[in-house]
Design a protein that fits this description.
Layout lengths: L1 H17 L7 H4 L5 H27 L5 H26 L18 H9 L2 H29 L3 H25 L2
Helix pairs in contact: 3-4, 3-6, 4-7, 5-6, 6-7
């Protein structure tokens, strides 16, 4: 195994010596990810993670018929999306950063939002949670469409298409449960 590792390192070094020198840039490390792909992924990770928290709270506390079950199912779907988003960055050798911490971005469920929602009860809780879920889903759809139009990586654009379909379907299910 050690010999195989040495051979791989030598092959990489030989290839590097044979190719023209390139400046060391972040893009050179990111393999097939373009700037849009990286920015989209780094934004979608915290958006999705915060939505997972809201979905957990909604599953535990919602009182509207069907809303707890929907939130439970969506939480599982969002966790799977979160794992896929993180895997994209990991495969590209890019650290997960939180460049959007503290920003009040459309659709982003903030810790303050979670606290306000958590303070609610009954129909007021359900309405506030549903409003934030709807805003997150709508913004996720917009961002996914943007990635599909401007992204470079086939992996990212395919993931964006999957997220667009999933969030669109989730919006329809949310509307069926709580109304438009």
């Amino acid at each position: 195994m050690r010999r195989l590792g040495c051979v791989a390192v030598l092959a990489v070094l030989a290839a590097a010596c044979a190719s023209p020198a390139r400046p060391a840039t972040r893009a050179a490390v990111t393999t097939s990810l373009g700037g849009t792909d990286v920015a989209w992924t780094q934004l979608m990770i915290p958006m999705t993670a915060q939505a997972v928290s809201l979905l957990g709270l909604t599953a535990a506390r919602a009182s509207s018929p069907g809303l707890p079950a929907l939130a439970t199912r969506l939480r599982s779907d969002y966790r799977a999306d979160l794992a896929r988003l993180r895997a994209v960055l990991s495969r590209a050798g890019i650290a997960e950063t939180h460049e959007h911490d503290g920003h009040d971005l459309p659709g982003m469920v903030t810790p303050a939002d979670l606290a306000a929602i958590g303070a609610g009860t009954g129909p007021g809780f359900d309405a506030l949670a549903a409003r934030h879920l709807r805003e997150e889903m709508e913004q996720s759809v917009r961002l996914a469409r943007s990635e599909q139009r401007s992204g470079h990586s086939p992996e990212c654009t395919a993931l964006a298409a999957s997220i667009e379909r999933a969030r669109g379907s989730a919006l329809a299910r949310l509307s069926a449960v709580i109304g438009p």
